[in-house]
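During the second year of the project, the team shifted from modelling isolated chains to modelling whole assemblies. The rationale, set out in the original proposal, was that interfaces cannot be judged from single-chain predictions alone. As a representative example for this report, we include one of the complexes processed in the last quarter. Its constituent sequences, exactly as entered into the pipeline, are reproduced here:
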Amino acid sequence: MRALGLAGYLKTAAMTAGVVWDSPLFLIDFALRVLRVLVLLGLWRSILGAGESAAGVSLAAVLTYTVIAEVFSEQLAVRTTLPEAFWEGTLVMRFLRPMGLIRQLSAEMLGRWFIHFTFFSVPLFLLAPLLGVDPRPASAVNGALFALSLALSVLVGLAMEQLFGAATVAFEQPVWIVDYVRTAVSTVLSGSLLPLALYPWGLGDIFSYLPFAAMAWAPLAIFTGVGQPLPLLVSQLIWLAILWPLGTWLWNANREKLISYGG
Amino acid sequence: MAADSVWRRLFRLWALYGSMDLLWLARGPRIAVPFILSDFVTGIATITATFLLAERFNGIGPWAKPQVLFLLGYSLLVRGLIDVLFNFNMAQVSRRIGRGQLDHLLIQPQPLWMAFLTEGFAPFSGAGMLLPGLGLTVYSVAELQLSVSGTWVALFALYLVGSIAIVLSFEYAWASVAFWAPRAAEEINSDTWRLITQLAPFPLEGIAGWALAGLLTILPVGLVAWYPARVLLRMAGPPWAPLVLPVAALIASAFATWIFTRGLNQYGRTGSSRYLSLGHRR
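Output from the structure prediction step:
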């Protein structure tokens, strides 16, 4: 690990994982997530009867989509500790560490993920059959391609995080307002709550071309077999190729502002 | 203080905070636009999922499309009114307590309840959701061709007050934890707020009985919009159904007041430990 230069990042991740236990608030977040799943499952069951389907999406597939979207919700809507760093004015401290900035933030994010994935996502996945949901992928191939797509969606999410972070500072907007709006917009546009295929007026087709869809809709559609894997993976790669250079450029262009922002 | 002088003071304070809110927005579009727009966008986003489903499937379960629109309009009105009347962390009061900012209210020469009732008044910056909510409600009532009598309007107004009381009671009861654990619970109302507002605009018919019971009692999400909308739309229910929300609101308010007062007593003994001598928060 030391030879690879990963030791510092692993330690950072471990420290962030420990911070989760500082406050019991994450239990309320877990409650919200469980309730959201229960409400959405109930909603789908009152809309689609057993064996029914809409736009080629069966009830079983949409139930699986709902549960898997919650199991991987943090990976499908990537958030680092960047907004907190802005809010507290501590980004400058991160610049002083002998580690890459985005990699530091990613390590902190991974530490948080570890706790939430272990204590929420895995139990929810295992308990899904008790809720009448089959949490398995449509096929073994879909499962494998989902893993690839999920990795790409995390990278797209990190690029978006960098882009929005730089834009917050560039346009001198309040960090939490940008964060709230981004969360609200991406929940609708990404398909993390409802499958895009079931949106009315062909909205889902339009939204599927946006970068938000590359974060959630692509992997979830692959997992449940409601979308063609190849075009979905290609769209993710295209957005990666666009967003990373754009985010890096905006980030570097606002480097001085970034250092002194917040607090 | 006599009742009329209390009201006079309340209106003076509302006028004062309202004008301060306007002055703040008048600093320019750079301030005003993001705040109003973000309120509007986040509010619309919370109801979008239910709206899209209702549009796609021409209703949700036993709810016809215009009934779903009424539910969404009502839900937005509740949230919009809270944003207008209890802004600036008055609805997320754990932040005030946890940050030691309750002292800022306690040193004022007025009762604490009066400060809670007036200091969050933001009729301009907080009104982003009010108009869409009102528009959606009026449109759905017209679509449903509801016979709107004076009694119905009075019940509607009473229910709005009841739903707001449910949300605030939930928030204040949880916020009380911050009296004992200011640092850990400073942001507890962010989570409880998300919990109660994210799930409020959904019809709850399809979920299991035990979960529904929980959503009408311990986590009263169903009382924020779903249950009142059912009663106001005269959907099937027992004869005593109209009494449920007012009674629940009274019980919830009494419980929140009781636990908040306990917390306040604790605060009176310990005070806040969040400020360093140089004024910075720990």
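Chain B touches chain A at residues 30, 34-35, 37-38, 41-42, 44-46, 48-49, 52-53, 55-57, 60-62, 183-185, 187-188, 191-192, 194-195, 198-199, 202-208, 211, 215, 219, 221 (CB under 8 Å). The radius of gyration of chain B is 20 Å.
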